Amino acid sequence: MSSPLSGASACSRLSPHIALGTVSLREVEQANAARRRTVKGTRDGWSGSLRSFSARLAWRDHFMQKLEDEPALEVRCLHAAYEGLRPKEPDAGRLAGWEKGETGLPFVDACMRYLIHTGWLNFRMRSMLMAVASYHLWLDWRSTGPHLARMFTDYEPGIHWPQVQMQSGTTGMNTIRIYNPVKQGHDQDPTGEFTRKWVPELAEVPDEYLQEPWTWDGARRLLGRRYPAPVVDVAAAARAAREAVWAVRRRDGFREEAARIVTRHASRKDGAGRFVNDRAPRRKRGDARQMSLDL
Ligand SMILES: Cc1cc2nc3c(=O)[nH]c(=O)nc-3n(C[C@H](O)[C@H](O)[C@H](O)COP(=O)(O)OP(=O)(O)OC[C@H]3O[C@@H](n4cnc5c(N)ncnc54)[C@H](O)[C@@H]3O)c2cc1C
């Protein structure tokens, strides 16, 4: 599920049907429950896969209920301290490059072009696209979220906006996760097959430089001519973003507001699906809830 190479066949691909209502969630859950009964006691991995599929269906409702409960999270940062962190007026060049899959970061561009072409992308790569836009390119989520929404054939506001905010680090209650697009390229597309297919401009780049063509000897012949030079220095941009986000988290009153958000919005289950004991010591309870939404 983590790789865009296998994601399209390893995931159910039911999301457009669920979003548009051509199949009901009950129907999906009942079919899943029936299948779980048939694989009970087997050891081929299906039991765990079906259980985790069922959990994802529940996340959908969990996220939709968040938006129902606080509709403003479509337009305002869930944690108010993050308002104004990124410029309201986006850098037009960066935004356009990201939207078209022309950032000069090969794996990011491959994922965006694949999404534009197919209307679907696996979860991890959606997270990476969002995180690169918000952290490395330092674009406000309100300028980038609408583009993804337009590209997704499964656009569902209740899942989309909470996820967009989570991957941009503006909820105040989730772990800050800054994906490294070069590492993700190596990990999720080790042979380079996916990247080469969607970014054919890189055809002459040797395998070992595919995810970082700017480090290749022949880069001058390619970058800025047939393929863009990287729009940012990946490591420096991530460092600057991390420092800016942590500066917000250190402000007076940040923790109190974060605690309010956890009480109102966080799942009452821990990472293993067990209900968190509300009488457990405060710090432990908060940690467990925070973990439960770390997807
Ligand atoms: C920035 C971002 C935006 C997203 N926007 C949308 C969106 O607009 N519409 C949408 O359906 N999904 C969205 N997702 C969640 C997820 O990526 C997709 O639901 C999933 O990739 C759809 O493929 P599938 O049906 O094969 O999923 P499967 O893994 O087979 O899951 C089955 C169903 O469970 C639900 N589901 C799966 N993952 C999640 C999740 N992390 N959170 C909530 N529900 C989930 C979906 O309804 C999905 O169809 C978003 C994720 C991110 C990171």
Write the layout of secondary structure elements.
Layout (H helix, E strand, L loop, with lengths): L3 H7 L4 H6 L4 H15 L6 H24 L22 H9 L5 H13 L4 H14 L4 H11 L5 H12 L12 H8 L4 H6 L20 H4 L11 H16 L4 H12 L16 H11 L3
Bound molecules: flavin-adenine dinucleotide.
Provide key terms for this protein:
disordered C terminus; binds flavin-adenine dinucleotide
Helix content: 55-70%
What's the alpha carbon Rg, rounded to whole Å?
20 Å
**Beta strands, count:** 0
**CA-based shape:** globular
Count of DSSP H/I helices: 15
Mean pLDDT: 91
Order of helices and strands: HHHHHHHHHHHHHHH
Kindly estimate the percentage of residues that lie in beta strands according to DSSP: under 5%
Low-confidence stretches: 277-295
Ligand inventory:
flavin-adenine dinucleotide
The rounded distance between the terminal residues' Cα atoms is 13 Å
Instruction: Let me know the largest β-sheet.
Output: none
Class per helix and strand makeup: mainly alpha
Task: Walk me through this protein's architecture.
- By secondary structure, the chain is an all-alpha fold.
- The protein is built from 15 helices and no strands.
- Among the domains are: 4-70, no CATH class; 252-292, no CATH class.
- It has helices spanning 4-10, 15-20, 25-39, 46-69, 92-100, 106-118, 123-136, 141-151, 157-168, 181-188, 193-198, 219-222, 234-249, 254-265, 282-292.
- Helix 4 (46-69) crosses helix 9 and helix 7 crosses helix 9.
- It is globular, with a radius of gyration of 20 Å.
- It starts with a helix and ends with a helix.
- Residues 277-295 have low confidence and may be disordered.
- The structure holds flavin-adenine dinucleotide.
- Flavin-adenine dinucleotide binds at residues 11-15, 18-19, 53, 56-57, 59-60, 63, 122-123, 126-127, 130, 152, 154-156, 159-160, 163-164, 167, 295.
